[in-house]
Amino acid sequence: MIAFVILHYRAIEGTVKCVESIQALKGEKHIVIVDSASPDGTGVQLQARYAGTPGVTVLLAQENLGYARGNNLGILYAWQQLRPDYIAAVNNDVEIFQEDFIPKIDEIYARQPFDLLGPDILSVFSGIHQNPKSLEPCTLEAVRKKMASVQHAQKPIWMLLSSGQKNSPAIWRRVLRRKREAQGIDTSVPALGATLQGACVIFSRRYLERHPEPFYPKTFMYYEMEILDWLCRREGSVVLYDPSIQIIHYQYMATKTEYRSILRRSKFVCACLMDSLHAAEELMLSAGEGTETEAERAPALTGS
Fold first, then answer.
1. How far apart are CA 106 and CA 69, in angstroms?
2. In the 8-state DSSP scheme, what is residue 299?
3. Smallest Cα–Cα separation from 97: which of 17, 198, 14?
4. Whole-angstrom Cα distance, residue 9 to residue 252?
5. What is the mean pLDDT of the chain?
6. Exposure string (b/e) for 85-99, b if CB count within 10 Å is 16 or more?
7. Of 279, 281, 236, 267, nearest in space to 67 by CA
8. 35 pairs with which residues across the strands?
9. How far apart are CA 57 and CA 87, in angstroms?
10. E-assigned strand segments in 15-143
11. Residue 180 in 3-state DSSP?
């Protein structure tokens, strides 16, 4: 059995579509919706909508917990109440149209037992296959390089230029595609040890037994998967990307609902990302990352 944890904030139409797509899948499943204190009352609406619906639970958080803590709340509940074989944390802006999605997960695990699994994630907006997010490990050096990049992006002139690009969907799609092409990742083949994209990440029972709250809780939004990559590499956990399962990702639904202005949205993203980067740096330094040599860092995973 698999539990799907859907983090909800304001965008109720997307959440309902996500739930409906999961309900149509073959296999035993349970859906846990976590409302992160939506100020428009849509969490209460969802609770009323699914009251008495078999296989759907709605949890109402008392505050906006963000991505990591919101998902941790739902994952811990699903683990304690259901003890499933897998828990999939999915954004409310995704849909799954692959009917055999759940049986395929069992097939993948039989071939390659994993701790974390990521599907092929197809962005409707850009047409990009977003998984794996990166094949490079998250390191202290990478965190500090990203900090410098975000600091640069926060300068008023660059913020305005970036907002101008995002105001033109055609231009922004080209920018995203060029960035993705520059990574040179073949998304058509499985990959071990990759950093996964956070719109859908599947945790196996063996990982949940060790980490029933898997996301690092000192972030609000952004960079959660890079931090999780670092934690998994240190522990030697098996992280697998497999394109034989796929989801559709609509992107930006919650932030578009909260921030109509692209400039305000960009400022919000940069602020949250910088907070997450500082949290990642603090975590790595506390674990002695700054004193390790490259050779001493966790080796690349070979799978087992």
1. 27
2. P
3. 17
4. 11
5. 90
6. bbbbbbbbbbbbebe
7. 279
8. 8, 60
9. 14
10. 29-35, 56-60, 86-91, 94-95, 116-123
11. helix
Pairing of the two strands 116-123 and 200-204:
antiparallel
For 101, residues 6+ apart whose C-beta sits below 8 A from its C-beta are 25, 26, 27, 119, 245
Is the confidence at residue 294, as pLDDT, over 80?
A: no
Q: Are 214 and 68 in contact (CB under 8 A)?
A: no
Which pTM was predicted? Answer: 0.88
CA distance 270 to 160: 13
**150-188 residue pLDDT tens:** 988 777 665 555 555 555 678 878 889 999 999 999 999
Q: What is the CATH number that goes with domain 2-131+186-257? A: 3.90.550.10
Cα-based torsion angle of the residue sequence 156, 159, 133, 243 in order, rounded to the nearest 10 degrees? 180
Whether the ω angle into residue 103 lies within 30 degrees of 0, i.e. cis, is no
Q: Residue 69: which residues within 8 A CB-CB, separation 6 or more?
A: 215, 217
Distance CA 145, CA 143 (A): 5
The domain ranges of the chain are 2-131+186-257
Which pairing describes strands 94-95 and 239-249: parallel, antiparallel, or unpaired?
Answer: antiparallel
Q: Please tell me the distance from the alpha carbon of residue 31 to that of residue 19, in angstroms, as a whole number.
A: 7
3-state secondary structure of 134: strand
What is the number of H-type helices and E-type strands within the chain? 11, 9
| Contact present, 61 and 73 (Cβ < 8 Å) | yes
259: left (phi over 0), alpha (psi -120 to 50) or beta: beta
Q: Determine what percent of the chain falls in helix, strand and coil, rounding each to the nearest 5.
A: 45, 20, 35
Q: Which residue has the tokens 């934690």?
A: 231
**Cα 171–chain centre separation:** 25
- Residue 44 in contact with residue 18, Cβ under 8 Å? no
Rounded Cα–Cα distance for residues 295 and 180 (Å): 29
Between vectors from CA 284 to CA 278 and to CA 286, what angle results, nearest 5°? 100
